[in-house]
Amino acid sequence: MATTAELFEEPFVADEYIERLAWRTPGGGSRGGEAFDPKRLLEEFVNHIQELQVMDERIQRKVEKLEQQCQKEAKEFAKKVQELQKSNQVAFQHFQELDEHISYVATKVCHLGDQLEGVNTPRQRAVEAQKLMKYFNEFLDGELKSDVFTNSEKIKEAADIIQKLHLIAQELPFDRFSEVKSKIASKYHDLECQLIQEFTSAQRRGEISRMREVAAVLLHFKGYSHCVDVYIKQCQEGAFLRNDVFEDAAILCQRVNKQVGEVFSNPETVLAKLIQNIFEVKLQSYVKDQLEEHRKSDAEQYLKNLYDLYTRTTNLSSKLMEFNLGTDKQTFLSKLIKSIFISYLENYIEVEIGYLKSRSAMILQRYYDSKNHQKRSIGTGGIQDLKERIRQRTNLPLGPSIDTHGETFLSQEVVVNLLQETKQAFERCHRLSDPSDLPKNAFRIFSMLVEFLCTEHIDYALETGLAGIPSSDSKNANLYFLDVVHQANTIFHLFDKQFNDHLMPLISSSPKLSECLQKKKDIIEQMEVKLDMGIDRTLNCMIGQMKHILAAEQKKTDFKPEDENNVLIQYTNACVKVCGYVRKQVEKIRNSMDGKNVDTVLMEFGVRFHRLIYEHLQQYSYSCMGGMLAICDVAEYRKCAKDFKIALVLQLFDTLHALCNLLVVAPDNLKQVCSGEQLANLDKNILHSFVQLRVDYRSARLARHFS
């Protein structure tokens, strides 16, 4: 049976079980062979089945026995649970009875306590009244014999008694009890002084418990506020020894905040009174000393000190907000700050504007002095306005040209200084202005920036630059206006950045926003008009310079050489010099502009450049070799036009190059060339004008082919 049990393995699989049984039987291998004995295997299987049947019967009997035992124990457990439930119900009933009994006894005890208290309270009052009458008689007799008045250690009890006697004395008629009332008042005052002196001594010794005890007694005396004053005064002794009064005040309040709750029953009131004393005495005196020294003599230092002191005061106030100062501590601290600075903040913006105006004027004047430049008066009024309108419509230079010697009269250092001053003014304005006045004050500061940066500096430089642009027929003219454009663009970016970073946050939610945006738009549009005008006149000058080069360098024999077979040059000298000049100007334009302005100006320059070359080529007659040379020149001009990186300009020179082919093409091929892709859309008069430039145009053969 043990062997049979060994064959059962988990998990049980019948096929594997039979396989293991056959394998353990001699001659029972499943693969057959010479040793295989089926009879023996059958015999083993029969015996094993019998063993399994015996094992099954045994296990079945054991299972039945266990089931009977389990049923018996279940019945016993159920019986025991029923008994426990009955016991629990009995206990619960006893508990309810006990709870009712306890409630009944408690009610009786409370009732009895109320009765005892009703009897005892009048009795205690009577005893207390008897004692007070006894002490009152002593004051009537004029001799204080009780130990409570003569023993200094019983000052607390004496204070309690005299405080009550003092209240009683207030109700007595003066004519009959004037003397005793005077004695009680005198004793009341003496005890009050003794208690305050005791509190002072305890504070100096650092005895918190004694301070708390005396303060509790003084709480019912009129001199309690004097006790608080003494505490506040002694707290500040030795607290302000360093140069930083604000840090000293913060440390003092932090220390007192930890202590005041252990001494007084109303710590928030005491701490608030300490803070009020610090603000109205220490801080106000310190602020006055710092500001009055520079108020009339040095506006810059005055404004810096005012901003610094106000900032440090508000920072101190933020730290004090952590403490318990009562219900509305924000309003309390704001009133304290206002009481210190109100006389300085009322006219702050006037001082700010006055300083900003004088400082900006000084920065500009110092710059012009460093350039040995006497600033011209641009002028206003009817005549000047008329000149301006004529100049805008005709683009004519009115008045003599001014030689600026290459000076743009724009300085990034000046601009940075003006913007820095304005930035500081905006910061001070944000901190020092009343919220209702903030947008208005910020707008005034912005107006100062516009006046001195945009009008007095940039606009003046543009006017001077415009006046310095030579006429278009000037020879060897130096063109500096593009330098003005470059610097003006840089300054505009700085101006716009300050507008967005420092002005916008101050006016973003006020009606002043639209006013500022409009003012900014107007000043920029006004300057863009002058920039456009200056760029246009500069381009005219560039074209004028190129005309001078062409007039001086281009010879009639370039395109109609005497010896057609001995032309050694690839392109003319005039072309070389013009292309060199154009490349320099293109590079200068790219360096002076930014964004889409580069393409716009280069397109305009390229169109004018093309028109110049187009008109120039029509001034000459061309032989066959001269026409080839003209094509080479135009090819070089086209290569130069590629530097513009403008499709329209390159297209114009491609068309011009195709037109020049008409100068050299055989007469029989003229119609074919004219109908080509690049020339097919051109006006026939333009094609005819180029064909007319050929020296052989008047020959009957050419005229016949082109007609």
Summarize the structure in short:
Residues 38-146 form the Exocyst complex component Sec10 N-terminal domain. Residues 49-87 form a coiled coil. The chain has 707 residues and is mostly helical.
Alpha-beta classification: mainly alpha
Cα-atom Rg, whole angstroms? 56 Å
Round the mean pLDDT to the nearest integer and report it: 82
The first-level CATH class name of the largest domain: Mainly Alpha
Q: What is the CATH topology classification name of the largest domain?
A: Methane Monooxygenase Hydroxylase, Chain G, domain 1
Q: What is the total tally of β strands?
A: 0
The low-pLDDT segments are 380-386, 395-400
Largest sheet: none
Number of domains: 4
Number of helices: 25
Helix content: over 70%
**Anisotropy-based shape:** flat
| CATH second-level architecture of the largest domain | Up-down Bundle
Tell me the β content. under 5%
Order of helices and strands: HHHHHHHHHHHHHHHHHHHHHHHHH
The first-to-last residue Cα distance is: 131 Å
Write up this protein.
The chain is mostly helical and 707 residues long. It has helices at residues 2-6, 14-24, 38-141, 147-150, 155-171, 174-205, 208-218, 224-235, 245-263, 267-292, 299-320, 329-345, 348-370, 382-394, 412-432, 438-468, 481-507, 512-553, 573-592, 596-617, 624-642, 647-660, 670-674, 684-691, 700-706. Helix 15 packs parallel to helix 17 and helix 17 (481-507) runs parallel beside helix 19 (573-592). The longest helix is centred in the N-terminal third of the chain and has 104 residues, at 38-141. It starts with a helix and ends with a helix. The relative contact order is 0.03.
